[in-house]
């Protein structure tokens, strides 16, 4: 019982049956997690986290002190702060939480008497006379042992866990030592090669001044032979050094630059010594295998660039598996994977300009191209959120209104306020308590928008750094002044273009999700259902205002205009679908036109005033032209609509003018692009017209079925 609540000994297992795993496996896994998490707790191995004690440490850390052998740094010692029952541990076991069993006092020490050999022993008597064997004292259990027994974990499993931790710690220590040792060794080798180059250069100078003068009697190019020999010897050592130089460092560059100077000096010696030769010393120079210092440095730089690009690629792949599109805070309303990726890219650019080499424009372009590939893939990942078609409802089949149907009988006899609304209309009674209907999925799409704009802003800063850095050596083929350098070079144009397209796509998808999915119950699912006069647009406006307010609170300022514009376009599209594809629950009369027009004007006004003019009024008017064209059709008489339909059918070439009145007209295809000049749009206005003439025309021309009440 806990606080009056009975706790079950065997709580229900929520994961179903997992083949190959039983309760013991899960128990051991839980024990390993719990034991590892409690490493720094008393009774689990110490009061602090795992620490490696070097044998060279002095003081208490060396294990020396009173009662201990100072020569043995790994000898057991009493750990300060341990309570009763805490065993004395060696530093290895203390570091890994392995407790030595504290033996009970010696039988000899606990005997009532003492051995004869003891200084305190009495004289005479048998040595076994006063010797009694007391029972072994029980050692208090440590916290780890209590936990192990409570979780029913065997000692073998516990020992296996402790040995694993021991191997892990020792492996980490050895790895650190190997890395430090390898770094120190490379530095030593680099210094040695630089000194050797100096010595080789001095030796070549002495060879030229002292020995070659005499050796010319026996060989015409004695200096050249000596230079080739020295060049080959140093080249052999340089080649061995470069085998281990897998990355570019200042030491490696210094060695290569010094080798290049030595090579130039030796080649110059050969050329000067071969002036009298017929080929000018070309034959002996060909025997000198070039060091190719510049190409080696260039290869190391390109390898460095590839390594940095690979790090960015790893971040991208990890983001595909772990990104949840939840912002870290209000100050950072974008994906953390974007922060990590752009931080790594910025560090790569900064480190690139710290390389101890001459930075050419070609190298800058190589770095920018590699990074842009990663950026474009990340942008495509952010953009992969579906399309607007995923949220647009399927168009219902076309039917004709029937005044004899049960629906219209009910519509004529029903009260205007009772019994008319479906379950979707329950929110109308609570209109003053309308809340935003933006779902978590839509909010995550907003975070994608913010992420794209964040990446775009970082690209601008990175582009500026790559363009205006003073270390960049301009190309010899293209001379540019600093004043027009920024306008002539742009490294991430393709990424910017991809971001603009992605922003458009994500804004569109989020808008259609907001309108057709999140707000469906109040918009497409309820507006003008069963009666225009009693299902006006005011509830829709309230919910839309709340949703737009939330949008402006989440989406960054730069992304808001596009996002709100797409919401407006989706709203107008939903309004058209209510009028032209609203299903059997909607019907319109010509007299409803003034109410429809008034509602749409209110809808336009809301977007014009949203966000302090976030969407320009001209843009609103331009997007509203299609809806206004359909509303103008709904204001016409049925006879005029039929005439307009025959006219547009003839204009589209489906049937001749003379035949239109006597022949059956084929059903115009549904394009989804509503327009007052589109035959399918005019036909849909007739299908939703509550009129006997329209009903008769649709029956004779297309044999459309009646609506079911």
Automatic annotation (TrEMBL):
Residues 534-645 form the MHD2 domain. Residues 58-68 have a biased composition (Gly residues). Pfam families: TPR_PATROL1 (PF25761). InterPro entries: Munc13_1, Munc13_dom-2, PATROL1_C, unc-13_homologue. It comes from the Eukaryota. Residues 253-395 form the MHD1 domain. Residues 57-84, 103-139 are annotated as: Disordered. This is MHD1 domain-containing protein. It comes from Cuscuta epithymum.
